[in-house]
Amino acid sequence: MLKVLSKTGLSLALAGGVALAGFQTSDTPVVKESSKYDLNLAHYVGASPELAEKAKNLGVDVSKADPAEEIANQGAKFQQAGDNHVAYNKTSGDVPVLVLLAKYPEGDEPIGDMKGQVPAHYYEDLIFGTEYNPYELEQFKKYGGEDVPTDRTMQNAYKESSYGQVNLVRKENTKFAWVEMPKGASYYLDQEGKYAEGGKYKLGNENGDAHTGEFVRDLLKAADDQVDFSKYAVNGEVPNVFVIHEGTGAEFSRDPAQFWSHKWSLLSALYYGKYYETGKPADAYAGMSQSEWINKTVAEDMTYDGVIVNNYNIQPGIGGNVAGYNLATGGYDEALKQGPYPAQTGVYAHEFGHVLGLPDFYDTLYTSEGVGNYSMMAGGSWMRYPNAAAYSGNSPTHFDPFSKVFLGWADPVSVKPDDGVKKITLPSIDKANADNGLVKMEVPGSNGTEYFLFENVQQSGFNKGLIRQGENSHGLVAWHVDENIINLYQSAGFRPNNVENWMNKRFQYNQSQTASDGTVVTHYGLSVLQADGKYDLEKYVNRGDSGDFFQTGDKLTPNSKNVHSGSYYFWKDNSDIPADSGINVTDIVENEDGSITAKFYYSTNASKQ
């Protein structure tokens, strides 16, 4: 498989390579047998900042040819099932989360795992509670302290980002408990080929790729007598199962003998698992047609309590490079061991964002940073407070403004060309409500598909984790949204933030990709307009710094020097200079109470300010 650092995105998925990332690779598409259940591609959490930086510094090329391309190159088109970026997906009220905790038989744990398991009720606190204090446990006592917050739960993260509109709930009164797997880590994460047909995995079992589907299936079967799956079903199918596995995640180190956190479907994991083991997809291996194999698998491995269980996300029970994996050598080094650290909110909340229909907004090809640390759906899931490794992900940033609008959590204050000059005061987003936290300005003539969003980000609430970027990382954040590209994610399987563009002219011949529907993409679907104009996110320099924020005295205009508000679609005559969108944000002032006041207007109203 092609893994560019973090197994994230189509190029990093078990079933994904460049050919699956929205590119047409054959003039003769293969006609796929119709089925209610599509084979699709995994969504992986991004690599930790430490891992990404280490790989960059080492010059380690961690990509490799994706064997799934052999199938993709036949022309079959794979969609991202369950992601809707044409119509917004309003999410509010009680949101059920079915959580399963998976442990291995004693003595057969993943390499480097701590002795025993964290008591199950701590994960209930982490996901559903308002207080989470793993630091009272002996294993984690050394990480506790007066400055260490104990309110950084997934529940609180979703409540803060949704302005109180989302409440994560269980539908059972049963006690939270670990479910023992029928096989050990030596099977599911086997790196030697001991459990492969013929003693060798034809295409590898890195991060358990060949056995991930079996792991989830075995867990469902083992938990069947403890869980009533029908309580979570909607129209006969459980929307998602939230799996927590014993051990750490490979996103901390790229250790091949650990699972990498992701969201996927059981059907696809089983289908491609057999492909990695034998070189044949599960249907071909079984000598069946694809529809026959799907029907059999749905009946035998995906039906519990009379309902279908297919979609899942999986994340670790602890954090850190607990085995001491050495990225440079591919071996293990005692000196590189870190942790174990307690599980934190970031990875959990990021993966559940996919469950709600959100895409990754970082560059899944790892040639740039996408929106960096400024969204839960990108590097923001790794923000922390205090700024030390043990807390990575405990204080993730908010979901980005587009995601909030997509989920129905925010209704931006709209500024239109006929509105004159609007002087608006924005509270810090953690203190805002659904109606006063964002400003939206559309590019005239774009039919509402291209627009700018503005928010006030201060180091308070969950955004306190931005201390990782330094104390001066605060101010007005300006976002560019292009729904023409984000919509391609659903219609053509195209990742929205994999084409970086760092030119103020916004016309970049050498940075483009063509989606499977023929659309040429030259820029991100969602981007941060960095105030200093350095384009560090696009140039893969960092995931964010204080220069990205518009602070007192700064301004954004169609002609401002460092970065401007020009359009990606409207050009001056036949030149490569973007036309004047007319969008101005001036007189920016950060107030003592953390709010920001600024003037928002179009150039036609400049004389009225």
Would you kindly provide a written description of the structure presented here, covering whatever features stand out?
This protein has about 600 residues and is α/β, with parallel strands linked by helices. It has 2 domains: about 95-355, no CATH class; about 400-605, no CATH class. It has helices at about 50-60, 70, 120-130, 155-160, 185-190, 210-225, 265-280, 280-285, 290-300, 345-355, 400-405, 485, 490; strands at about 45, 95, 100-105, 165-170, 180, 235-240, 240-245, 260-265, 305, 305-310, 310-315, 320, 340, 415, 420-425, 440, 450-455, 475-480, 515, 520, 525-530, 585-590, 595-600. The strands form 7 sheets. The chain has a 6-stranded mixed β-sheet, sandwiched between helices. A hairpin with a 7-residue loop joins strand 16 (about 440) and strand 17 (about 450-455). Helix 6 (about 210-225) crosses helix 7 (about 265-280). It is globular, with a radius of gyration of 24 Å. The chain starts with about 40 loop residues before the first strand and ends in a 7-residue tail after the last strand.
First and last CA, distance: 56 Å
Low-pLDDT segments, ≥5 res: 1-35, 62-86
* Total strand segments: 23
Side by side, the strands of the main sheet go 1-8-11-7-3-5
> Shape from CA axes?
globular
Number of domains: 2
Helix tally equals 13
Radius of gyration: 24 Å
On the 0-100 scale, what is the average pLDDT?
86
Keywords: Hydrolase, Metalloprotease, Protease, Signal
GO biological process, one term: proteolysis
Domain Peptidase M6-like: 340-407
GO molecular function: metallopeptidase activity
